[in-house]
Specification:
With 192 residues, the chain is of the alpha+beta class. Helices cover 34% and strands 31% of the residues. α1 runs parallel beside α4. The longest helix is centred in the middle third of the chain and has 19 residues. It is an enzyme of class 4 (lyase).
């Protein structure tokens, strides 16, 4: 089983993550940001990851530190669970529609964290979640996990756009982390 536990504690946040990449899509998520919890549960369900995540942050300031640090902690858990990244597919992509929206996500578990994010949101917030934090979550997760992530989202409804993206990210990661014993370390360099 590819599992990891991460604890991240700063003056702004206190986060614990228990991740099983080879799970069944069950989770327990508490961040204090309702919409973000919903997105992370959707991510868990569609990636078939088992995820227990508890975050306490300075939400009296805003949601920035909590969302950023959850991205960093979750990325670290993925990196730890994949260890040397041997016997994985490495690349994954997904196109997910949700009503009028469409999200395209491609990932490369390369060891080089990088993100490209193309989306324009209409509203500043969805519930207590700042839409601008979607880009920041992707970047924090990508850098911490050592995964290249390319995101493109189109649509009219911000809720649908963000949700389609979290689902597409989950499916792309499910494909990229899929086991393939024939691959060895999937790089001509022999190391990722």
């Amino acid at each position: 089983m590819r599992t990891a536990s991460v604890k991240r504690q700063t003056k702004e946040t206190d986060i614990t993550v228990d991740l099983n990449i080879d799970g069944s899509g069950t989770g327990s998520i508490t961040t204090g940001i309702g919409f973000f919890d919903h997105m992370l549960m959707s991510f868990t369900k569609h990636g078939l990851f088992d995820l227990k995540l508890k975050a306490k942050g300075d939400l009296d300031v805003d949601d920035h530190h909590t969302v950023e640090d959850v991205g960093l902690a979750l990325g670290e858990a993925f990196k730890d669970a994949l260890k040397d990244k041997s016997n994985i597919e490495r690349f994954g992509h997904a196109i997910v529609p949700m009503d009028e929206s469409l999200s395209q996500v491609a990932v490369d578990i390369s060891g080089r964290g990088y993100s490209v994010f193309n989306a324009e949101f209409k509203a500043e917030k969805i519930g207590d979640y700042s839409t601008r934090m979607t880009r920041h979550f992707i970047d924090s997760f990508a850098r911490s996990a050592g995964i290249t992530i390319n995101v493109k989202i189109e649509g009219e409804d911000d809720h649908h756009m963000v949700e389609a993206m979290f689902k597409a990210l989950a499916i792309a990661l499910y494909k990229a982390t899929a086991k393939n014993e024939k691959r060895g370390v999937p790089s001509t360099k022999g190391k990722l």
